[in-house]
Write a structure and sequence with these properties.
By secondary structure, this protein is α+β, with helices and mostly antiparallel strands. It has 18 helices and 28 strands. The chain is about 40% helix and about 30% strand. The protein is rod-shaped and about 185 Å long. The chain starts with 9 loop residues before the first strand and ends with a strand. Its EC number is 2.7.13.3.
C-alpha cells in the first residue's frame, strides 16, 4: 500500500533493519505483538500472542477490519479486539516494506468498569427518571451523580450539573447562597451521622408562586454496609400545606399542624422480597434488621395487598397509596406507599419503593375532622345568625338560622352580595362599616335592616369583625341577632312614654293655671282692700302661690319632670316677688351660685316655699332700712357614701345672707313670726338642719340630702 493511503490511526513507518532488530525485543514483551504483511498475512507473533494469533489474523482479514489498514480513520470501538473474556486495544505501526506491527494492550478491567458505568447510567436515566418525586444522587463529597427529570426539568441544566455541587448550581442560577449552605449542612449531617436527615424548603418560583418541598438526604449502603451514595428525595408538599391551611381556617384557627414526615427507601423482588433498604425502613417497621427474604408487603392488610398487586400489574407503579400496617412490635401505623417496577439489564425486574410514616398526620386529620364536625354542629345549631363575608362583600358561608330568619333557600344566599338582602339605607351603612372592617377594625353595635323573602323588614343587630379568608385576604365574620320584635316593643314603649309625658305636662300646666287663678283672686282681693295690713297678707300669700306655680311652670316648659334647676329658679323667683311688691329688683344687689344644681321634684315645692319666705323677709325687714340692700343665695353640693345603702348620695347646702340689721335678738332662737315658723316646718319636711345667725345682717344656712342621682 502507498503511504498516502495510510489511516491516521496508523503509527509512523519503521525501517526494515529496525523491524528485524525489533523481533528480539518483541519476544521480551508481555503484551501480544503481531507483524502482518500488507495483505494481512501473519509474518510474526511473539510468545504472548500465540494464543490469539489465529483468531486475530482471521478477524483482521474480515472486510470490516480492513479499514484499520486502508487510511480510514476508525472510531473508538474499532481499536478493540476480544478474545474469550478479555478485551484488548490495538496499536498499529507501519514498516517501510508496508508490513504492520500490531501491539495489543489488555483493557479488560477498564472495559468492565465502563460497562458497569453504562449500566448505572441506564438505571439512572431509564428507572429513576420515572420515579414521581424529585430525586437526586450525590457522592460522599456532595457532587451530583444523577438528577431525575422531576427535580430539574431542563435537560441542558441536568447534564451540566453532573459532577458539580449546590454552590456551583446556585451561582449559575443566580440563587441565594444560603440555599446551598443550608442544603450542604443537612448533607454533611447525613454523612457524618450516617442517618437520614429531613428538611423543608420553601422557594419562590415564576409568578411569585411559593412552593414547599420536603427534602430528605438518606445514605444508601450495599449488602456489606458500605456507603454507595447519598439519595436525596424532594417531595412537593405544597398542596398538602394548602390543605392544612384550609383545615385550620375551617376550624377557626383551632391549632397549628406540625408536619413531621419520614421516608424509607427499599428495593424488592417482583414478589416483594426485600433486596436493599435504608435505616428509615427499620424505624418505620420497628425492626432492628429486616430479613433479606422478608416480604415487604407482609405488613399490609390482605385487601390492600390485592389492590397494590393489581395496580402494579396494570400500570407498573403505585403512587401515594395510604394503608394501615402492623409493625414487627405490633404497633399500628399508617404509611404512604410509592412503588415502581424497574427493568434493569443487569439486575432484571425489581421494585423500587418509598414508605412515608403518616400516622401522626392521619390521627391529626381524624381529630380535626371530628372537631370540625363538632364545631359545625354548634355553628349550624346556633340561634344567633352567623355570616362569613368574603373580601368582595359576598356571603361565603352562613349558619342555618340566617336562611331560617330571612326565609331564603341556602342556594340563593351563598356567594350572593349581602347588599341584595338589605334596604337601601342599610346598604350605605353596611358599606361604611365593612370598609372599616377591611382596615382591621372590630365594629360593634351594627344595626341593619334586612328584607325578608315576603318583603317585610327585619332588624338585625350585632358585630362584624375582620377575619382572613382561605385565600388570605381579609373578609368579615358577622354575628347578628334578630331584634325586630325588640324594636317594635321599644317603639311601643316610646309611644306610651310620650303619651304619659304629654299627660304629665298637661297636669303640671293645669296645676300652674289653677294656682295662677288663686293668685289672681288674691290680687283682686288685695286691690279691693284699703287696709295695708290686709294688702301685706295678700302679697305674702300671692308670693307663696306664685312660688309653687313657678315650679310647675318650669317643669312643663323644660319637658323635664323629675328635676329642677334651683339656681335658675332662684333668679326667676326673686324677680317675681319683686314685681308682687311693686319694687325694682335692679335696685337690689342680688347674687347666686353660677354652678348647675339640680334638685329632685319631691323637694322642689318645699324648697320653693322656703326661698319665698327668705326673699319676702328680705323685702320686709332689710330693703326699707338699708341704703344699698344686698341679698345672696348661694348653693353648694358634695357627695358622701350612705352607710346603709352603700351608695353615693348628694348633700346640698343653701346659704342666704343679707346686709340688713338682722333679727331682733330676742327672736333669733325662738323663731317667732309666721315666716320663721314656716321655715322650721318646711325644713323638717326635708329632714334638713338649719342655722340662723344675726351678725352683720341675717345669715340662714340649710343642709339637706338630695335623692337626685
Amino acid at each position: 500500500m502507498e503511504d498516502a493511503n495510510r489511516g491516521s490511526s496508523v503509527e509512523p513507518k519503521l525501517e526494515q533493519h529496525q523491524l528485524a532488530h525489533s523481533y528480539g525485543l518483541f519476544d521480551q514483551l508481555v503484551q501480544p505483538v503481531f507483524v502482518l504483511s500488507a495483505t494481512i498475512g501473519l509474518l510474526y507473533n511473539n510468545a504472548a500472542a500465540s494464543a490469539y494469533a489465529e483468531k486475530f489474523v482471521r478477524h483482521c482479514s474480515q472486510p470490516a477490519f480492513q479499514k484499520y489498514f486502508g487510511g480510514v480513520s476508525p472510531s473508538k470501538d474499532s481499536f478493540t479486539f476480544r478474545h474469550v473474556q478479555r478485551v484488548f486495544s490495538c496499536s498499529i505501526s507501519v514498516a517501510n516494506t508496508g508490513d504492520f506491527v500490531v501491539i495489543l494492550n489488555d483493557i479488560t478491567p477498564l472495559k468492565r468498569e465502563l460497562d458497569k458505568r453504562e449500566d448505572r447510567i441506564f438505571f439512572y436515566e431509564k428507572v429513576l427518571n420515572n420515579v414521581p418525586v424529585d430525586l437526586v444522587i450525590f457522592n460522599d463529597e456532595h457532587k451530583y451523580l444523577f438528577v431525575n427529570r422531576f427535580a430539574i426539568k431542563n435537560d441542558k441544566v441536568r447534564k451540566w450539573i453532573i459532577g458539580k455541587d449546590d454552590f456551583e448550581y446556585v451561582k449559575e442560577r443566580n440563587m441565594p447562597v444560603e440555599i446551598a449552605q443550608r442544603r450542604r449542612a443537612y448533607f454533611d449531617k447525613c454523612v457524618t451521622e450516617n442517618s437520614t436527615v429531613e428538611t423543608e424548603d420553601e422557594t419562590v418560583g415564576v409568578g411569585n408562586n411559593r412552593k414547599t418541598t420536603l427534602r430528605r438526604f438518606s445514605p444508601i449502603h450495599d449488602k456489606n454496609g458500605e456507603l454507595l451514595f447519598i439519595l436525596g428525595f424532594g417531595i412537593d408538599i405544597t398542596d398538602r400545606k394548602i390543605m392544612e391551611t384550609e383545615i385550620q381556617y375551617s376550624e377557626r384557627k383551632y391549632r397549628e399542624l406540625f408536619f413531621n414526615n419520614t421516608v424509607g427507601v427499599f428495593t424488592a423482588t417482583i414478589l416483594g422480597g426485600v433486596i436493599t433498604y435504608n435505616k428509615e425502613i427499620e424505624r418505620i417497621l420497628d425492626a432492628i434488621e429486616v430479613d433479606r427474604q422478608y416480604n415487604i408487603m407482609s405488613f399490609l392488610k390482605d385487601e390492600d395487598k390485592k389492590v397494590i398487586s393489581g395496580t402494579l400489574k396494570q400500570k407498573g407503579r403505585v403512587v401515594n397509596f395510604e394503608s394501615p400496617i402492623t409493625t414487627l412490635l405490633g404497633e399500628s401505623k399508617t404509611i404512604l406507599l410509592n412503588m415502581v417496577i424497574v427493568d434493569s439489564p443487569q439486575e432484571g425486574r425489581y421494585i423500587l419503593g418509598t414508605i412515608i410514616d403518616v400516622t401522626e398526620q392521619v390521627l391529626t386529620r381524624l381529630e380535626l375532622e371530628s372537631s370540625e364536625a363538632r364545631y359545625r354542629s354548634i355553628f349550624e345549631g346556633s340561634l344567633d345568625i352567623i355570616i362569613t363575608i368574603g373580601n368582595d362583600a359576598n356571603v361565603s358561608f352562613h349558619s342555618f338560622s340566617f336562611s331560617s330568619v330571612l326565609g331564603y333557600e341556602n342556594s340563593l344566599l351563598i356567594n350572593a352580595p349581602i347588599a341584595e338582602f338589605l334596604t337601601e339605607e342599610s346598604v350605605v351603612k353596611f358599606n361604611a362599616v365593612f370598609e372599616e372592617v377591611l382596615k382591621g377594625e372590630y365594629m360593634r353595635d351594627v344595626e341593619l335592616e334586612f328584607i325578608h323573602c315576603d318583603g317585610s323588614i327585619l332588624v338585625l343587630e350585632g358585630s362584624i369583625s375582620p377575619s382572613p379568608n382561605i385565600d388570605g385576604r381579609i373578609g368579615g365574620q358577622a354575628f347578628f341577632r334578630d331584634i325586630t320584635l325588640k324594636r317594635e316593643q321599644e317603639r311601643s314603649i316610646k309611644r306610651s312614654l310620650a303619651e304619659k309625658e304629654m299627660l304629665l305636662k298637661e297636669v303640671h300646666h293645669r296645676v300652674k293655671n289653677n294656682l295662677t287663678v288663686i293668685y289672681s283672686l288674691l290680687e283682686m282681693a288685695s286691690m279691693n282692700s284699703d287696709n295695708e295690713a290686709f294688702k301685706q297678707v295678700f302679697a305674702s300669700s300671692q308670693s307663696r302661690v306664685r312660688s309653687m306655680a313657678m315650679v310647675h311652670e318650669n317643669l312643663y316648659q323644660t319637658n323635664v319632670f323629675s328635676e329642677l334647676d334651683i339656681v335658675a329658679y332662684s333668679n326667676q323667683l326673686f324677680k317675681e316677688i319683686s314685681a308682687i311688691y311693686n319694687l325694682d329688683h335692679k335696685s337690689v344687689f342680688f347674687s347666686t351660685t353660677n354652678d348647675l344644681i339640680l334638685i329632685d321634684i319631691d323637694h322642689a315645692i318645699t324648697i320653693g316655699l322656703i326661698l319665698n319666705e327668705l326673699i319676702i323677709n328680705f323685702y320686709k325687714y332689710v330693703y326699707p332700712v338699708t341704703v344699698s340692700p344686698a341679698l345672696s343665695l348661694s348653693y353648694g353640693q358634695t357627695e358622701f357614701l350612705d352607710e346603709k345603702s352603700g351608695n353615693l348620695k348628694h348633700r346640698i347646702t343653701l346659704i342666704c345672707q343679707d346686709n340688713g340689721p338682722g333679727l331682733d335678738p330676742s327672736r333669733v332662737d325662738t323663731g317667732s313670726g309666721i315666716g320663721m315658723l314656716l321655715l322650721q316646718l318646711l325644713s323638717k319636711q326635708l329632714k334638713a338642719t338649719i342655722t340662723r345667725v344675726s351678725d352683720n345682717g341675717f345669715n340662714f344656712t340649710m343642709v339637706w340630702n338630695s335623692t337626685h342621682k
